[in-house]
Design brief:
- The protein has 147 residues and is mainly alpha-helical.
- It has two domains: 67 residues, no CATH class; 56 residues.
- It has eight helices and no strands.
- Helix 2 packs across helix 4 and helix 7 packs across helix 8.
């Protein structure tokens, strides 16, 4: 449950919302003990999405949030914590790809890794399907196309 959901619940069910806020506060406290006070600063600056990212990916998420800030957080909010994994593995080029192509980029990179990112860069939004075909290969098995 994120902070927006908790605040919405507060309007409907005060005890449940307070339980959620307490749980979120306890999670934040545990992460601060584990990773230091910077966790609180990042959560203050970037909200519940940063808290979830740090919970899932620890210091690696903290470093990426420091480096890419609000841009990374917004993409994680839209497409989930897989964006952090992809940026960690394939670099900041993922941010531009996901910002430009959205969920299709996330799926292509998830399925094909660096090859998916390269295909997306080469073929752009008009050719996402073609990029997928190229990555599947002529036999549909992921083997590179034969000339």
């Amino acid at each position: 449950m994120n902070l927006d959901e908790l605040l919405s619940d507060l309007k409907r069910d005060v005890p449940a919302a307070l339980d959620g806020l307490l749980a979120m506060g306890q999670e934040l406290a545990a992460l601060v003990r584990q990773h230091g006070p910077e966790v609180a600063e990042l959560v203050k600056a970037h909200g519940a999405t940063a808290l979830e990212a740090i919970r899932l990916h620890g210091p690696e998420a903290m470093a990426l949030i420091r480096k890419h800030g609000a841009e990374l957080i917004e993409l994680v909010r839209q497409h989930g914590p897989v964006v952090i994994e992809q940026v960690r593995e394939h670099g900041p080029e993922v941010l531009a790809a996901v910002r430009e192509h959205g969920a299709q980029a996330v799926a292509l990179i998830r399925e094909h890794g660096a090859r998916g990112l390269e295909a997306l860069r080469e073929h752009g939004p008009e050719a996402l399907e073609r990029a997928k075909e190229l990555l599947r290969g002529p036999a549909g098995d992921g083997a590179p196309p034969r000339d």
